[in-house]
Amino acid sequence: MTIVVSATVAISVYAGAATAQAEKSRAATATLPPINDGLPMPGFDIVPGETAIVVTDPQNDFLSPQGVTWGVVGQSITENRTVQNIEALFKASGETGMPLFISPHYYYEHDHRWEFEGTLETLMHSIGMFDRPNALDLEGFEGSGADWLEQYKPYIENGKTVVTSPHKVYGPDSNDLALQLRKAGISKVILAGMSSNLCTESHMRGLIEQGFEVMVVTDATAGAITEHYNGYEASLTNFRMIASKVDNTANTVKAIKAAYRR
């Protein structure tokens, strides 16, 4: 007896097998953690008292449609639901008592007298990003590009959140974040914020070099997308290859709450 299999059936079977295989192996995305992607999975255990949330640059110039970078970061922020996901982490901190640290980015007038700059430093200085008149007062801060996104203020200005000194380029090398974390007994960091391949990735690298264990919340960050470059995609690869764990906001919030119920 001869069995004839139609081309349509054969294609359907092949597609089903391919889908099943894809489910067994998946690269990390903004919203989904990796599955059997060929890399080790060190994991990240949330330990109350030792773990903190760190958010880089939750400021208007990145996250508001009126911010000076929205034209290049808006697509990534919108697709990742970055604004909402950062707020979900803030809420989880408030509900559980997990320590929250903010590492902001400010430029004062004297910073504009630097004699040399890298590519995006030059851009940030030229568009007045994160500008403040000086370090000693808040004149002109309210509602400026350097100010917090309005909906985040209750979480940041609550008398509990630690706002570090500003980082000046991208990483925590130029501010007191590592000191503040160590003084609080923190050795493990859940990292989120802006911008993915700049300050967020630099904070990941810098903290790991300082001996902290770091996981990155992949949809609570975003990056610039231009005609020729996608900053978010570049950072996602490095997050996966360097951090102890990458995962989305929903899973991270569940893990935080579960850790505090033990």
Q: Please give the domain count.
A: 1
- Give the oligomeric state of the chains in this entry, treating copies of one chain as homo and distinct chains as hetero: single chain
Per CATH, which architecture? 3-Layer(aba) Sandwich
Looking at the structure, the CATH topology is Rossmann fold
Q: Strand-residue fraction?
A: 5-15%
The pLDDT mean sits at 91
User: How would a crystallographer describe the biggest sheet?
Assistant: 6 strands, parallel
| Order of helix and strand elements from N to C terminus | HEHHHEHHEHEHEHEH
Determine the number of helices (DSSP H or I, runs of at least 4 residues): 10
How many angstroms does the end-to-end distance come to?
A: 64 Å
What does the model show?
InterPro entries: Isochorismatase-like_dom, Isochorismatase-like_hydrls, Isochorismatase-like_sf. It is a single chain. The protein has 262 residues and is α/β, with parallel strands linked by helices. The chain has one domain: Isochorismatase-like (Rossmann fold), CATH 3.40.50. Helix content is 40%, strand content 10%. It has a 6-stranded parallel beta sheet with strand order 3-2-1-4-5-6, with helices on both faces. Helix 4 (82-96) runs parallel beside helix 10 (249-261) and helix 8 (196-209) runs parallel beside helix 9 (231-242). The chain is globular. Mean pLDDT is 91; it is low at 13-18.
Q: What labels describe this entry?
A:
262 residues, alpha/beta, Rossmann fold, six-stranded parallel beta sheet, 10 helices, Isochorismatase-like_dom
